[in-house]
Write a structure and sequence with these properties.
Elements lengths: L4 H11 L3 H11 L3 H18 L7 E9 L2 E9 L2 H4 L2 H17 L4 H6 L8 H12 L4 E9 L2 E6 L5 E7 L5 H14 L11 H17 L7 H16 L5 E2 L2 E5 H8 L5 E8 L4
Antiparallel strand pairs: 1-2, 2-3, 4-5, 5-8, 6-7
Helix pairs in contact: 1-2, 2-3, 3-7, 9-10
């Protein structure tokens, strides 16, 4: 039986594959749509294996929040052309929807979770590899929990942030904080949460600078401590100057809303914008 344009169009809608790939799959499968889909999926597996060592630095980053839970997912690919494809963005959104519903603890658990057709997310990603010929991977899945949470997606789907609060907070205030995280890229909520290796590095850099400027050895630690306090002010979220009002810190901005309001956690995911 000859393969018709109607058959090709139907398979293309089912699989998202190109017309020639659909035509070849139908011919090989003798017009059996299930077999043709399996051929296309196997092609995706073959392409994925072949391109496993390629770098996937582009992609789509999306985020959402609901009832105190917020999540970010980033589906990565090789080129910006594919990253902007409607079906690629739609798959990223489907993955985010599952994350918001299932609330998995790890990337691996999310990849194993099914989409509407019952097939695992990882299988759908592999299918898209066969369609586009590019390496794809779920590069990031991060989430936060709190009494309230907010998400922010920067225009272009390359940068997103999520923030959790200890109290229910006005959405405008929460969004201000999420945009602060996007713009200022803090390393931690508060100074005591800065990783020790970061502290050690900043202290050593400050000592070296002071030493090179001729400061005596007995003053180096004191000078480094001063530099560390400046680092905290610039890089910890609560101490940062509020981007909408540099006269106050984020902590002071939150205290204007409630004396007990604070930030529990945040996450920032970006692809090729920093």
């Amino acid at each position: 039986m000859a393969v018709t344009m109607a058959d090709i169009s139907h398979l293309r809608k089912m699989s998202g594959a190109g017309m020639m790939d659909c035509k070849k799959a139908l011919e090989e499968a003798g017009n059996d749509f299930d077999k043709a889909m399996e051929i296309i999926r196997k092609k995706g597996q073959a392409v994925a294996a072949k391109r496993s060592d390629r770098e996937a630095s582009e992609g789509c980053v999306l985020a959402a929040e609901n009832a105190g839970f917020a999540a970010i997912v980033a589906l990565k690919c090789e080129t910006d052309f594919v990253a902007k494809n409607e079906q690629f963005v739609a798959l990223t959104q489907d993955i985010l929807n599952v994350a918001m519903s299932v609330k998995p603890e790890t990337v691996e658990a999310l990849l194993a979770s099914p989409l509407a057709d019952g097939r695992a997310i990882q299988e759908h990603i592999t299918d898209r590899v066969g369609v586009t010929g590019e390496k794809m991977e779920l590069g990031f899945y991060q989430f936060v929990n709190g009494a309230s949470a907010v998400s922010y997606i920067h225009p272009g789907n390359k940068l997103a942030t999520i923030v959790a609060f200890n109290e229910v907070v006005d959405h405008t205030v929460a969004r201000d904080v999420a945009m602060q995280v996007a713009a200022m890229n803090p390393v931690a909520v508060r100074s005591e949460e800065v990783p020790q290796n970061v502290i050690d590095t900043e202290m050593e850099i400050a000592r070296d600078k002071a030493r090179q400027s001729g400061k005596p050895e007995n003053l180096l630690d004191r000078i480094a401590q001063g530099a560390l306090q400046k680092y905290y002010k610039e890089n910890t979220l609560l101490q940062q100057e509020f981007i909408k009002d540099s006269k106050i810190s984020i902590e002071e901005y939150l205290r204007q809303q409630s004396k007990t309001l604070t930030i529990l956690a945040f996450s920032r995911v970006t692809l090729n914008v920093d």
